[in-house]
């Protein structure tokens, strides 16, 4: 994997509180162009809070966000979009009654002489879907008639119209079947090939192992390890997620080893 030395996005010491609840504590994260970083953790680990911080929905209380090496303030969603951060949330926010073209250009309509340029929008829609190898029966069918996987790919394609440099995907394969999941994961790989940095939030370890280059684990609002996917077993990642490296079994084993060491020391005296 060839990645740039300077991360396109870097979080340094990000902390966030909600009243008395400390949701994030000194979180660090780096995203380079052309890499997929999976952000994983149990429910309540702080993944959603961190995504909202990056997306400008809930700015951090402490810490620094760097964009292409310079410090920036991301205090609202529009700022994040202007920088080049696109977020595809789990609910997709698609309009079922509109066709694919209408959804892709919702809020970004192309207007000529005060009239919607449907021909140009359809041409660009076909071009975008083709470059991403997204297969959809027609760009003029209502989104309601698409499969879950197709809807997800339309939502991801829509996020690319602003030509972002980082795309955040929130549980993109949740509730999808095997074939639809494969379709979405193929698209994630194509985003990487285009040189984008991708943050993939997922509970599915198989998906993470299939497409991620690195895995960043959050536990109780803190970093709990960053792993190279190829060099790390699924068990190690799950242990970091659950905190299994410090559980009753490992403590008992440590005690047993400690007792063994003391017996050995006594025998050597």
Quick overview:
The chain has helices at residues 47-55, 77-83, 100-104, 118-131, 148-159, 178-193, 205-211, 234-242, 248-268, and strands at 9-18, 21-31, 36-40, 62-67, 70-72, 85-88, 111-112, 115-116, 166-170, 197-201, 214-219, 222-228. It is of the alpha/beta class and 269 residues long. The protein folds into 2 domains: 9-95 and 164-232, Rossmann fold; 235-269.
Record keyword descriptors for this entry.
269 residues, alpha/beta, six-stranded mixed sheet, 9 helices, 12 strands, 25% strand
Folded structure, characterized:
It is a single chain. With 269 residues, the chain is of the alpha/beta class. The strands form three sheets. Strands 6-9-10-3-11-12 form a six-stranded mixed sheet, sandwiched between helices. A four-stranded antiparallel sheet has the order 2-1-4-5, with helices on one face. A two-stranded antiparallel ribbon has the order 7-8. The protein folds into two domains: 156 residues, P-loop containing nucleotide triphosphate hydrolases (Rossmann fold, 3-Layer(aba) Sandwich); 35 residues. Strand 7 and strand 8 form a beta hairpin.
């Amino acid at each position: 994997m060839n990645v740039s030395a300077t991360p396109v996005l870097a979080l340094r010491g990000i902390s966030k509180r909600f009243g008395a609840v400390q949701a994030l504590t000194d979180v660090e994260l780096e995203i380079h162009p052309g890499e997929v970083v999976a952000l994983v953790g149990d429910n309540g680990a702080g993944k959603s809070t961190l995504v909202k911080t990056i997306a400008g929905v809930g700015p951090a209380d402490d810490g620094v966000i760097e964009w292409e090496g310079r410090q920036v303030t991301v205090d609202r969603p529009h700022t994040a979009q202007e920088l080049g951060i696109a977020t595809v949330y789990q609910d997709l926010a698609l309009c079922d009654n509109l066709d694919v073209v209408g959804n892709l250009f919702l809020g970004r309509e192309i207007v000529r002489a005060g009239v919607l340029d449907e021909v140009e929008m359809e041409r660009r829609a076909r071009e975008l879907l083709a470059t991403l190898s997204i297969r959809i029966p027609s760009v003029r069918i209502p989104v309601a008639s698409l499969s879950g996987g197709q809807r997800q790919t339309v939502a991801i394609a829509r996020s690319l119209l602003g030509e972002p440099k980082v795309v955040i995907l929130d549980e993109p394969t949740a509730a999808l079947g095997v074939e639809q999941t494969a379709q979405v994961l193929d698209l994630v790989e194509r985003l990487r090939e285009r040189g984008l940095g991708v943050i993939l939030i997922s509970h599915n370890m198989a998906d993470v192992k299939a497409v991620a280059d690195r895995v960043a684990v959050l536990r109780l609002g803190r970093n709990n390890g960053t792993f190279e996917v190829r060099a790390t077993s699924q068990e190690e990642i799950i242990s970091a997620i659950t905190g299994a490296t410090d559980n009753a079994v490992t403590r008992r084993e440590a005690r047993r080893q400690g007792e063994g060491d003391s017996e050995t020391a006594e025998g050597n005296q």
